[in-house]
């Protein structure tokens, strides 16, 4: 299993440069809602960056509703007026990488909701994905290995099981920065990691039993140490 991510905070400066260039292109060519942008290949050549960087910038602008991609057709300007679009693009370019406390607060708010929804909407396939992530986490912890990614894979499986694509997307966006900060601050020591095995199991059992309130309570217990930790760093 691999973490699927939409953004990479390590190249934010490059991304902002591409977004600025796309804004200038839209304004210079007077592109209107529904107009098509040049292909990723053409944009990468024009801006002097890789196609993967262009793709990530387009995905970011899609997330904010500024662009729309259609399979086999290309990328198009969304139905937003030019003044509003430029204002939104300026705001996006001013966005800063969130601090660890903000990430933790956002994650907790998201997951207390997603775990309730997952309890109500989960499928057998969702449970299977959670079990796989849980087992991978157990193995890493038991072997004394770092299990941060396996931990987050379990939580991402819950987000996906919630059936809410927007919440799932938010989780995918903040996950890379969470991993970086976990490693930076050494959040999960061995004792906490072993405790996490049972806590994850409790959350899983509540979701499996389709008990939203119990699942929320178990998630609160799981996050108690993390929440206290982030305010002591």
List keywords for this structure.
mainly alpha; two-stranded antiparallel ribbon; 10 helices; 2 domains
Topology:
Elements: H1 12-28, H2 40-47, H3 51-63, E1 67-70, E2 74-77, H4 82-94, H5 100-121, H6 124-142, H7 148-161, H8 165-185, H9 190-208, H10 212-230
Antiparallel strand pairs: 1-2
Helix pairs in contact: 1-3, 1-4, 2-3, 5-7, 5-8, 5-9, 5-10, 6-7, 6-9, 7-8, 9-10
What does this structure look like?
This protein has helices spanning 12-28, 40-47, 51-63, 82-94, 100-121, 124-142, 148-161, 165-185, 190-208, 212-230, and strands at residues 67-70, 74-77. The protein has 233 residues and is mostly helical. It folds into 2 domains: 9-94, Winged helix-like DNA-binding domain superfamily/Winged helix DNA-binding domain (Arc Repressor Mutant, subunit A, Orthogonal Bundle); 100-230, GntR ligand-binding domain-like (Four Helix Bundle (Hemerythrin (Met), subunit A), Up-down Bundle). The chain has a two-stranded antiparallel sheet with strand order 1-2. It is elongated. Mean pLDDT is 85; it is low at 1-8.
Q: Which CATH architecture of the largest domain would you pick?
A: Up-down Bundle
Largest sheet: 2 strands, antiparallel
Outline the low-pLDDT stretches. 1-8
* Overall radius of gyration: 20 Å
CATH class designation of the largest domain: Mainly Alpha
Mean pLDDT: 85
- How many β-strand stretches? 2
CATH topology group of the largest domain:
Four Helix Bundle (Hemerythrin (Met), subunit A)
Our estimate of the beta-strand percent is: under 5%
- SS-derived structural category: mainly alpha
Helix content: over 70%
- Overall tally of structural domains: 2
Shape: elongated
Span from first to last CA?
Answer: 31 Å
Helix and strand run: HHHEEHHHHHHH
CATH superfamily of the largest domain, please? Answer: GntR ligand-binding domain-like
Enumerate the strands of the largest sheet in spatial order, edge to edge or round the barrel.
1-2
Query: Please, how many helices?
Result: 10
């Amino acid at each position: 299993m691999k973490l699927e991510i939409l953004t990479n905070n390590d190249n934010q400066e490059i991304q902002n440069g591409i977004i600025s260039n796309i804004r200038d292109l839209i304004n210079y060519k007077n592109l209107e809602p529904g107009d098509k942008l040049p292909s990723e290949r053409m944009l990468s050549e024009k801006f002097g960056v890789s196609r993967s960087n262009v793709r990530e910038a387009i995905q970011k602008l899609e997330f904010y509703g500024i662009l729309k991609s259609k399979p086999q057709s290309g990328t198009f300007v969304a139905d937003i007026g030019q003044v509003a679009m430029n204002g939104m693009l300026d705001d996006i370019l001013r966005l800063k990488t969130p601090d660890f406390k903000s990430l933790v607060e956002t994650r907790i708010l998201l997951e207390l909701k997603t775990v309730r929804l997952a309890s109500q909407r989960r499928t057998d396939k969702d449970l299977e994905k959670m079990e796989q992530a849980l087992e991978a986490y157990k193995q890493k912890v038991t072997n004394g290995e770092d299990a941060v990614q396996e931990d987050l894979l379990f939580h991402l499986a819950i987000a996906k099981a919630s059936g809410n694509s927007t919440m799932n997307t938010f989780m995918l966006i903040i996950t890379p920065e969470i991993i970086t900060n976990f490693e930076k601050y050494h959040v999960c020591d061995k004792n906490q990691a072993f405790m996490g095995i049972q806590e994850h199991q409790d959350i899983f059992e509540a979701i499996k039993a389709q008990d939203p309130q119990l699942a929320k309570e178990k998630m609160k217990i799981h996050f108690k140490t993390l929440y206290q930790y982030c305010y002591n760093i």
